Amino acid sequence: MKKIKWSVLVFFVLALLLSAGTSFLALEQNATKKETEGTIKKLSIALVNNDSGTVVNGTDINFGEALTAKVLKENDQEWQTAPANFARNGLKSGTYDLMITIPQNFSEKTMSMDSENPEKATIEYQISKTGNKDAEAEAERVALEKVNELNGRVIDVYFGTILNSLQTAQDSIQKLVAKEETYGSIYNDHVNAPLSQYTQQFKTVQDYTGTSKESFRSLQDILKGFGTGLADGTKTNETYFQSLEKLAKNQETNALVTKSFAEKMTQNDQAMSTGDVSEQLANLKSSNDAIYAQFQKMEENKTMAVQVDNVQKYLDTINEQVAMINNEVTTKMGDGLTENVRTDLQNYISGQDSGNPKTISLNDLADSKLHDRFNDAIWRAMQQLSNHDKRVFEKAIEDGAYDAGTYLNVLKLAEKYASENNKDWDYSISAKLPRDKEVDDAMAAYMTEKLDEIKAISSSVSGYYRYPITTEVQIEPSKGTQRLYFAVPRDFYIFEGIDAVKISSDAHPDAIADISYDADKELWYIDLKPEVTAETESAFTATLAIDLYMKQETLTSSFIQQPIAIDLYKEITTPSEPVTPEEPTNPDEPTIPGEEEGEGGEEPVTPPVVPDPPTVETSRIGIDTQYMLKPEDVEQKRQEVLSNLQSTVKSTADDTAKFVAPYYRLAELFRVYYGINASNETLDLDGKRLTELATANSYYTQFNNDRIAAIVSAITDSVTRFIQRDLTIFKQQVDESQTRVATTKENANVLTDRLNETTAQAATMNQSVAKMLENVEAWRKASLELLDKGGVVVTNTGDEKTATLALGSEFQTLLTQSKSLADASKSNLNSADNVYKTFDAIDQQAKNIQNSGLGIVTQAQRLSTNMSDKLGQDQTFAGNFADVMKNSRVGDRPNEDLYNFLSNPVTKVKGDTIAAGDTFTPYLIVLVCFIVALFTGYVIAAQERKRRQEDDFEEEMALAYQNTPITLLTVGIGLIEGAIIGAISAYFLDLHNVLFVSWMGIIVLIMLVFVTIATYLLRQLRMIGMFLLLVILAMYLFLTEAVGLKIDKDSILATVRSMSPLQYVENLLNSFASRADDWLILMYSLIGAAVIGIAVNLFVWHRNKQAEGDDDHDA
Q1: What is the separation of C-alpha 843 from the centre of its chain, rounded to a whole number of angstroms?
Q2: d(C-alpha 412, C-alpha 420), whole Å
Q3: How many angstroms separate the CA atoms of 467 and 548, rounded?
Q4: Which long-range contacts (CB under 8 A, 24 or more apart) does 649-658 make?
Q5: Would you indicate the residue range of the signal peptide (predicted)?
């Protein structure tokens, strides 16, 4: 019984330890991870920048240099720049955790957005596989961060370029609108208005020609009526003349016929007194009067003469106006036209007329593209230069290299160009001439060999190389103490505690000095022992050995050639001579009583003796300048390499050609662009800019000279020809108009002359008719008298015949004059018709000119309206464009806030990283509970079996009563273990108040279920029960998602995992942690499982001992 109690006690102790220990081990990791969180080791990162940069719109862009400069200022990681080979070796050796390589064409590909096939830029990074997952993850993060950072910079440049272009467009649009408004005003004032005036003047000319046509139409009608009257009169005269001729013939025929004189006279009287003859004579006289009156000038009546006179005056007026216009056109088309056009164009283009003088150069006309092309070519040629170090060419000049002076001048010009144009010029780029390069390669191998020898020297300090130096120091005896001291050379270190400084002497085998280091003064002190420097000792030579340490990254070929200068000082401290008291008073001299003793007989007071301070003598001993690699050894090796150098002439020539070609190309660019001859040995660049050195015939000068005069001279002739062409056409039209007017005036003058002649003829004819009438009247009277007399007929027959013949002759003359007047009238009518046709042609020409002028004016007005509409639209567009771009600039500088917003409109804020230790892991809780329950069930089953073997009366009790004690024990242990695990886990999970109580209840319930089920299986099924429990554990342990295993939901493994009871327990804990709604259902199921577990433990059945014994015997 006592043994059982002890075993039970051990069981309880082990169960408690297992519950508490496993819970602590599983959950204590959270606290440990929280404490160690954020202590990730800094990464050693090598940044290899091969980016050669690019030029965009005259601006140098090099993202590689920008990133390099930025990361070297950061302290989050250990950033270093290194060559590619060195960085790759460091990555292999573990010196670097991450290597980031920026390729040579990174900036060029990045800024290839305006090309036809833009290429994506790439950044290569390599991670050292050290096995440290945190370091590798951190390396991945840093690489991605830098890639994102470069993307942001590229976006900044893109948006900067786009906004700069839009701002330039905005300024250009405003200038375009202003120019358009100016040109519209000039067009309306100097083209549209004059065209309207010229058209109006031709309208006036047309009105005048219309009036002239109406006047000439009236004149033509009068002349036509006059001609008709003359024709009728002529016919009447001819009839009358024929009658006279017939009378004469009858008289001649009847001269021999003797008829009655009375009959003859009666017939004659009847013939002479007929109404027709009188009427014809009266009509002839009326016509003559009307013709005469028509050709007289009377103010009250518009006779033909008056109308012709008005036409002449009107033609004179028109001729004067046309002559004035012709004189004005002739004046403008004279010799001064070209000069006037040139002066007007000069004033207008140069802005003299507006009061804002300006200049125009070829560079302005080409929008600076000519300069940009030359500058781009010069900058590209400068970037192809292999060497930027002037000392290389100065040495080449000393060596007598061909054209080395030209190369040096080109390099000076390139430096001045980069300085004046704010170019990023790297002065550190140095490359030897091809022959020197081969020598340098050999010397580099020599330097590497020497560096390896130094690295081979053993060093006791990690990260440092050691280089020992020794020197001899002469020690002289002295009266006082001696001390040697020195400072550590620059870039070297001497560490304490490792005997880095030692001094020894063959004359004194033992230690001769004490060595110390003063950190405040940064000096090493060697205090020589007094016994070896005493005056009684002899001088001796001591050997001073110093171990100098240098950082591994500082060990370079140039470093080992630097002199190692150590200033060694000796300090001798000599103590002062002891001070003797004052000499006693001379006994021969009398003493005065009271002076030798003090008052009251006291001893005299002696002043204290103050010793003199020790004497310190400091002298510089110095140490011979030492070298890790002596200069004479380097020079000797160089001469050896030169003497052994075996290279072909072709290879050297090709290398030399490749080396010097960019210098000749750049020299030619400077000669063409600036006119500067780089081969000039006396080229002086000091104190002057390249623009000041530019010659008159250089492209730079030609591009920047004012070209307004040349432009005006070039276009003056064309403009003059254009103006002269229009003025010539206009002058031709004016000349034609003057010709027609002159012709009309001449016709009018001819008409006037003919009218005058006709007037004179009409007057003469009128007089003749009047005279004829008088004669006829007289003849009639004579005939009447003859008739009355009747007796004298025969006598007067001869006279009658003679008178008749005379009358016929007079009528013949009158008839001739009438015919002549009729012909003149027809001629006048034809002349008037020609004048009318001339006026009609003038009127038609005026109409054509007016129609052309109206068309031109209409087109000009339409063009003016269109220009006004276009100006309004452009102003609206300029206003809208200005509104869009108004926040792109702040004053005259770009709006950096807008650029930042466009390049990164959405920012990300990284929250606290949730580490694995911070997350709730029910996986561990389930494992702890199940393991503790398995152990508890095994122990209870074993104890029960052992108890049954010792209890002989168990079968006499009921089955439930037999299992009640063990069941109560199982339930109690499960509750205790659940409380322990729940309390420890709640503590580490930082649960309080209601959550703590709920958590405790869940864990206690889980442990109760686990312990009762495990105890039942092990009690009832034993080995099979253990198998079932381990299967349940394996199903959960190897298939849970908590270990990062991803299983397809449709696979068999997913089905097996869904059958695991422990998976449901884990889901319960997850639901509780996430405050899901389904955890209560699982909780109720767990309560049901607990009830079932308690119930089945009450009915565990075992075979009797005899059956068990038989089984054991059979076994």
Answers
A1: 66
A2: 12
A3: 5
A4: 652/434, 652/435, 655/434, 655/437, 656/433, 656/434, 656/435
A5: 1-25
- My answer on whether 534 and 675 are in the same domain is no
C-beta of residue 215 within 8 angstroms of C-beta of residue 312: no
CB atoms near residue 98 (< 10 Å): 25
Mean per-residue pLDDT pooled into runs of 10, the chain (1115 residues):
56 66 59 47 83 82 82 81 84 81 84 71 79 69 75 68 68 71 72 64 65 65 68 69 68 57 61 57 66 55 65 74 72 65 66 62 61 78 75 69 74 77 74 64 82 87 89 85 88 85 88 88 88 83 90 85 85 71 47 42 52 76 78 79 57 64 77 74 72 72 66 69 72 76 76 73 72 71 65 56 62 66 67 67 69 68 71 69 61 64 45 41 85 90 77 63 88 92 87 88 92 92 88 81 59 73 85 73 88 91 60 47
- 161 is written with which tokens? 């370029």
Domain boundary among 660, 687, 704: 704
Tokens of 915: 């580490």
Q: Which of 866, 758, 868, 770 is nearest to 810 (CA)?
A: 770
What ranges in 403-501 are assigned the alpha helix state H? Answer: 404-420, 434-455
As a whole number of angstroms, the longest Cα–Cα distance in the chain is 234
Asked if 154 and 869 count as a contact pair (C-beta separation under 8 A), the reply is: no
- Determine the 3-state secondary structure of 567 from DSSP: coil
**Does the residue 413 lie in any domain?**
yes
Taking the C-alpha atoms of residue 59 and residue 424, their distance in angstroms, rounded to an integer, is: 10
What 8-state DSSP symbol labels residue 1085?
H
E strands, 692-756, in order: none
Run of H or E including 1028: helix 1023-1039
DSSP bridge pairs for 464: 551
Distance CA 557, CA 629 (A): 9
The pTM assigned to this predicted structure is: 0.30
Residues 22 and 51 occupy one common structural domain: no
CATH number at residue 473: 2.60.40.740
What tokens were used for 797? 């027959």
Q: Which of 914, 1035, 920, 913 has the alpha carbon at shortest distance from 26?
A: 920
Judge contact between 87 and 100, C-beta under 8 A. no
| Six-digit token string for 282 | 């009266």
The residues that bridge with 471 in the sheet, in sequence order, are 544
Q: Which domain holds residue 58?
A: 44-170
The residue type of 743 is T
Alpha-carbon span 864 to 569, nearest angstrom: 98
Residue 81 sits at φ, ψ, to 5 deg, of -100, 140
753 falls within a domain: no
DSSP string covering 761-783, please? HHHHHHHHHHHHHHHHHHHHHHH
Does residue 1023 sit in the same domain as residue 968? yes
Decide if 430 contacts 436 (C-beta within 8 A). no
Same domain membership, residue 524 and residue 400: no
Q: What single letter denotes the amino acid at residue 499? A: D
Six token digits for residue 655: 């290398």
The answer to whether residue 833 sits within a structural domain is no
How many domains, the chain? Answer: 4
How far apart CA 331 and CA 348 sit, in angstroms, is 22
Residues 97 and 165 in one domain: yes
Q: Are residues 103 and 27 in the same domain?
A: no
Residue at token pair 């390396």: 139
Among 590, 605, 629, residue at a domain's last position: 629
Q: Is residue 101 part of a domain?
A: yes
What number of H helices and E strands is found in the chain? 32, 18
For residue 368, CA distances in Å to 178, 354, 361, 700, 846 come to: 22, 25, 10, 11, 53
